[in-house]
Amino acid sequence: MDLINGFITIFSSPITMLFIVMGSVLGVVVGAVPGLTASAAIAMLVPITYYIDPLSALAFLYVIGKAGRFGGSISAILFNTPGTTAAAATILDGHPMTQKGQAGKALKTASLASAIGDFTGEILLICGALTIATFTKQLGPPEYFAIYVCAFLIIGSVISSSVLKGIISTLFGASLAMIGLDPITSEPRFDFGMIELYNGLSLVPLLIGLFVISEVFTQASHDHSKDGKHDTVKAKNPEDDQLSMSEVKRCLPFIGKGAGIGSVVGLLPGVGSAVACFVAYGEGRRKAKNGDKWGTGVIEGVAAPEAANNAVSGPSMIPLLALGVPGSTIAAMLLGVFMIHGIQVGPQIFETSGDIVYGLFAAGLVGIVLYFLIGWFGSAFIGRQIDKIPAIMIYPSILAVACVSAYTARSSLFDVGLACIFGVIGYLMRVMNLSTAAAVIAFVLAPGAEQALRQSLMLSDSGFAIFMDRPVALAFFAIPVVAIGLRLYSRLRAQKTPAEMLDTA
Amino acid sequence: MSTSDLNSSDRQMRATARHDLATGLAIVALAVFLFVESLGIPVDPEDAGLSSRFFPQSICGLMAVLGAILAFNGARGQAAPDDKTTFNKTIFVTKVLPLSVLSFAYVWLFQLFGYTTATLITLYIASYLFGVRGKALVLLSPICSLLFYYLFFGLMGVFEPPAEIFDVMTFLKGS
After folding, report:
1. Is the residue at A380 inside a domain?
2. A376-385, A389-398, B100-109: which is most confident
3. Chain B contact for A277, CB < 8 A?
């Protein structure tokens, strides 16, 4: 019933619908431009949402995130370059299909699989978030602190190829969050005598610097002189551009499995679409009867990863809505938008701002239908148009938009300077294999974690021993310890195996 | 695996270890700097629970320890198996540094000459640095500058700060 009200809310507001349509188109286009991710686009567009109503703002950014994940498959299939990391596994069979003249079939498969995967994830979000929120309402500050620590460590340990660098990235983000007023005593901290830092760092320049300006710097460091137009291989037969019913039936089991994998991966903080697509591809290949042909251009090899990477979208919002703890960069940015509009995120949100939450769910479902239609009928056209515009012309314009976006948020030139500083820091983090995403998520999580810890200790006469009396908190503390332990153990085993092989040789 | 592959992965690992040493030392330096700064945070002795310094100092402490481990591993020539850094000093100095200096100059130009002139100049130089040449170089910056101006300051109604020296848009609007 609440969801129906959500649909009524968005359909009765032409402005919200306009933003959902714009979000779908923009998301697909942005996702299809190699190097420009949905996260970067959202980071640039967060300031714009200051000027529109909260539901339109959230729906716009949420739909960009969804459509952007699908958009990445267009350049992966057509140009052998994934538009986003989420589409990295789509290349394996998508581009060989293009070389065989079956680009149309591959793009239609990607559209269908993405839409079904995303729909599955969205249903899980709608059913799961409220259920979990009912349980989490009973949690107190000690449990919340344990959840924050769990999120910090899980994100830090899985987001980078080095556990050490992942955790350093989260600590760096957390240290930036310490700038500003103390959340309990309101004492100024780390303001370095600058009035602009008295209230803390604003999220917008941080996002724009770490995600957008650093990407422009990264693109500047690439040699674009060899970028040329990609050859289009025309379909030899009309059916090469179509997806038949029998082919859809062949793909459905892989789409279902991919959607399941993506939904589970989406629930884990920090793991993301890039992992989901490779897990689904590997699992699909292992189970497929034609597994030996995967990698040569089979539609199942496009369907499985595409369903998985889009299925991540909905479940990745569950920790945000049920706990107020963002598990992904897009969720962290949406939390920023909720905060800008004065909406308290957490288990109470379904009661205090239910109209916005269900409107957002409805917008997500409408967005899925829209990007499916855009993908089915227009992805080849979008791909061709993007191929016509040289990357060297796109990135200077993005730098200009990024700077003005940073200014727009608070009409502050200080924020533009800050975004430029974080642009350089973000570039250095990327090349040193530190994670900008982990830093941003930690920046958003840290104030809540500090508040929860200090409130916990105020509640207790026995200091840190309060956590020992809370079994839920202990369980959350144990999760990352086990996860990191397993990862280190598997690495030790992997290192040991070649050594043993050498010994026996 | 061939000998050349082994040599190349060995070279990559040594480069990553070298970069990890530098990164680790930078992290330790940042942590120490923030820790020293945190000593200036006012503390109320009668405050119940943890003081305002506890959380920042804990983060600095952890960062310093992990940074030191990263630097130590780097000094020993060790890096995580999949950990690959891609820093290239020449590329940084010739391509990234000029662009980052330009982005800081943009803030200064914005203050002195207003949005349009600052964006026009910055976009022109940025396009040149990216390798845009010919008609596109001439047309891209004025078209984008005006387009973004009307989008942000016209359509969205963002506050436009007055230029300290001269703003071309004031002149154009006035005539």
Report:
1. yes
2. B100-109
3. no
Q: Chain A: give the shortest CA distance to residue B175, in Å.
A: 26
The crossing angle, in degrees rounded to 10, of helices A54-79 and A329-340 is 160
Specify the number of domains making up chain A.
1
Cβ neighbours of residue A164 closer than 8 Å, sequence gap 6 or more: B66, B69, B70, B73, B80
Q: Residues of A with CB below 8 A from B144's CB?
A: 397, 400
Q: Which residue of A has its CA nearest to B140?
A: A393
Residue A233 domain-assigned?
A: no
CA distance A319 to chain B (A): 24
Residues A333 and A207 sit within 8 Å (Cβ to Cβ): yes
Of B70, B81, B87, the CB nearest to A431: B87
Q: Is residue A226 part of a domain?
A: no
What is the per-residue pLDDT across A110-122, written as a single tens digit (0 to 9) for each? 999 999 999 999 9
* Distance of residue B42 Cα from the nearest chain A Cα, in angstroms: 7
* Single pTM value for the model: 0.89
- The shortest C-alpha distance from B136 to chain A (Å) reads 8
**Do A488 and A163 form a contact (C-beta atoms < 8 A)?**
yes
- For chain B, the domains span 3-75, 89-174
Q: Name chain A contacts of B132, Cβ cutoff 8 Å.
A: 390, 392-393, 396
Going by pLDDT thresholds of 50, 70 and 90, the confidence category of residue B159 is confident
d(CA A197, CA A189): 9
B123, B145 contact by CB (below 8 A):
yes
pLDDT for residue B47 is more than 80: no
Q: Pseudo-torsion of CA A505, B1, B3, B8, nearest 10°?
A: -130
Separation CA A375–CA A74 (nearest Å): 9
pLDDT tens digits for A406-452?
998 888 999 999 999 999 999 999 999 999 999 999 999 999 999 99
Q: Whole domain around residue A136: which residue ranges?
A: 2-221+240-504
Digit-coded pLDDT (tens) for A143-191 = 999 999 998 888 888 777 788 999 999 999 999 999 999 988 888 999 9
Which two tokens mark B94?
Answer: 């010739």
pLDDT digits (tens, 9 = 90+) for A224-245: 666 655 655 566 677 778 889 9
Residue from A187, A192, A464 to probe the interface with B (highest B Cβ count within 10 Å): A187
* Nearest neighbour of A413 by CB, restricted to B31, B87, B110: B110
**Counting one residue from A and one from B, how many pairs have CB atoms under 8 Å apart?**
199
Is A48 close to B156, i.e. CB distance below 8 A? yes
In-domain check, residue A29: yes
Residues 6+ apart with CB under 8 A from B172: none
